[in-house]
Amino acid sequence: MSATSNRYRVSIEADPTVPMIRITRDFDATPAQLMRAHTDPELFARWVGPDGMETKILDWDATSGGRWRYVACRGSEEYGFHGCFHEVGEDRIVQTFTFDGQPEDVALETLRFEDLGDGRTRLHAQSLVDSFEGRDQWLASGMETGLEEGYAKLDARVAELG
Amino acid sequence: MSQSKDAQRRPCHLEAEIFDLMTKWIERYRLQAQERYDRLDAVLAEMHVDQRPTDHRHLEQGAAS
């Protein structure tokens, strides 16, 4: 079997009423295979990181009530993330997600694997954060025009209009 | 991001500017997610290979030749 599979498109929605990001994406795999790729630390480490960064799993207990911790590394750069697995079910994972650099910000993530039949599965991932500002910061992370700059621009526009 | 009627009542170039910025952020975020899930595709494809039942016919033919 070829490693090149259909390139399904990721769809992203920033909810206008709650500080939430929703992601949907189809896969040529069963819900059980997707579940394995999300809960087996070796498999997970192979795909989660940003391109060009290595993911080192430091702590991993993918069971309800368990916890996880990993670092993404590139040379001397290191970014740590941690959280708890609230629920690891048949086709659903509920977990928290925190960037070590912002330990007060906790995102609540729900991943659901919807069986589409014929060996295809739709991933529904949602992340709920504390505030719209936090959500926008998340969306803007690594952007050319980051949040600070973006808000500064908006402030300037508001002042002009004022 | 908001396309509600409320939003449309705001000054429209400010609204357009917010919308542009959010659209850029979301598209960039989408591309990052796209890269991540493309990598997941590759991992899943390897899992398919691992889980494929052994093709005995092929092995027998291989052994016979």
Brief synopsis:
The complex is a heterodimer of chains A (162) and B (65). An eight-stranded antiparallel beta sheet of chain A has the order 1-2-8-7-6-5-4-3.
Please provide a written account of the structure:
The complex is a heterodimer of chains A (162) and B (65). With 162 residues, chain A is of the alpha+beta class. In chain A, 25% of the residues lie in helices and 42% in strands. Chain A has an eight-stranded antiparallel β-sheet. Chain A is globular and about 55 Å long. Residues 1-5 of chain A have low confidence and may be disordered. With 65 residues, chain B is mainly alpha-helical. Helix content of chain B is 82%, strand content 0%. Chain B is built from three helices and no strands. Mean pLDDT of chain B is 73; it is low at 55-65. Classes of the chains: A alpha+beta (162), B mainly alpha (65). The A-B interface holds A 1-5, 7-12, 14, 16, 21, 23, 25, 27-29, 33-34, 36-37, 43, 46-48, 50-51, 123, 136, 138-140, 142-143, 145, 150, 153-154, 157-158, 161 and B 1-4, 11, 13-14, 17-18, 21-22, 24-26, 28-30, 32-49, 52.
- Please, how many helices of chain A? 4
Share of residues in strands of chain A: 35-45%
> Count the strands of chain A?
8
The outline of chain A comes out as globular
Structural class of chain B: mainly alpha
Could you give a short account of the major beta sheet of chain A? 8 strands, antiparallel
The neighbouring-strand order within the major sheet of chain A is 1-2-8-7-6-5-4-3
Structure classification of chain A: alpha+beta
Q: Which protein chains make the most extensive interface, counting residues with beta carbons within 8 Å of the other chain's beta carbons?
A: A-B, 43 and 36 residues
The succession of helices and strands of chain A, N to C, reads: EEHHEEEEEEHH
> Kindly, what is the distance between the CA atoms of the first and last residues of chain A, rounded to a whole number of angstroms?
62 Å
SSE order of chain B: HHH
* Low-confidence residue ranges of chain A: 1-5
**Termini Cα gap of chain B:** 65 Å
